[in-house]
Specification:
With about 400 residues, the protein is of the alpha/beta class. The protein has helices at about 75, 90-100, 120-140, 155-170, 190-200, 215, 230-250, 250-255, 270-285, 290, 305-310, 320-325, 325-330, 350-360, 365-380; strands at about 1-5, 5-10, 35-40, 45-50, 55, 105-110, 145-150, 175, 205-210, 260-265, 310-315, 335, 390. It has a single domain (about 1-15, about 80-390), classed as Metal-dependent hydrolases (TIM Barrel), CATH 3.20.20.140. The chain contains 15 helices and 13 strands.
Amino acid sequence: MIDTALVSCDDHLDLNMLPEDVWSSRMAARWGDRTPRVEQKEDGPAVWMADGESWGSWAGKRSSFAGPKPIHTAYDRGGVEDLTELRAGRPQLRLADMDRDGVWAHVVFGPVTSIKTRDEAFMRACYAAYNDWLYEDFCSAAPDRLVGVAMLPPYPEAAYDELKRLALKGGVRQANLQIAVAEPRLEDKRWEPLFDLLEQSGIILSFHVTVFPGVTKAFDKYKGSPGATFLHAKMFIDQFLDPFVDLFAWGILERHPKLKIVIAECGVGWVPWVIEELDYRHWRLWECADFWADKGGIPLKKKPSELFREQVYGTFQQSPTAMRLLEFWGPENLLWASDYPHPDSVWPNSRQAIGETMGHLPSATVQQLVGGNAAKLYGLDLSKATVRATLPIGEKAAA
């Protein structure tokens, strides 16, 4: 058994759990009825409406839905029936849920994909209002425990402006670019100012998987069939593969050696083969250095595996595969997560899940994975943690 502080590096604050006044309390009066607000549909669910569009459901009012559910969340498994409390979006209730799970800190991703509008000025105002609420009203309740992830617009200039605004205010450790809907692709030079600013500010960049309708439209024909559940395994990798390779192919990491990237909730098992293949392609490129000598040379000096070890981190939940890949991942670059309160979450059974997947590992390695790596990356002082978990580590070493 070991006693340690847990830091979960991928948790959520979705649109359905946000307080009703997140935008109305912060956006300028000039936006009027366009400002995101909750509307109760007659004989239907409460939904967020903004600029004439529905952004999605809100759990703050009881639903008339009854009967078996097609998908269970952590709340269902944890016996939480009253979602109108908005537990994930109310700091004290969320902290109580963290205490129940034995988790000291959450890295909290927001509802990035819910902001839908063609008006860039309105989009920028919505992102800014959410980010200000996140840090000033939500994370401020427990700054050491609630590590908010700022959300960036999916376009280079807007993302740069919002990151610069936040960097000047301070207090931001990580910012998320919803890479599945970001335009243009990362090799475009329009992204360079953002990468420069991330380096200068020390703010970590993350890519998180999304279920944005535009990304999942290929699933539409399969809705309502059991097989559709399996398609998510493909979707997670699909979203990350192109931008992940772009980081190496176009020299983004090499030009920005202080840039840190966290890839979240996309699985970590596919990464080793990709890096191995990139190393091989790098060797093939340099094997023909004489061909490139009079064409400007080869700007890609470092092996992709070296850049990866120095600059890329990945989150995992309960993954026996990840545990078998520790030699590749470090294990300094792996970050444990509970995914609260999503369907994939292990809340409120994080301690049990950690014991089942890591019980055979050395105690020091487990402490790195479940909190130590995160503390180093985010600058957290775990000696101040007042919530600690007793983990069944070492007992199953023989197994």
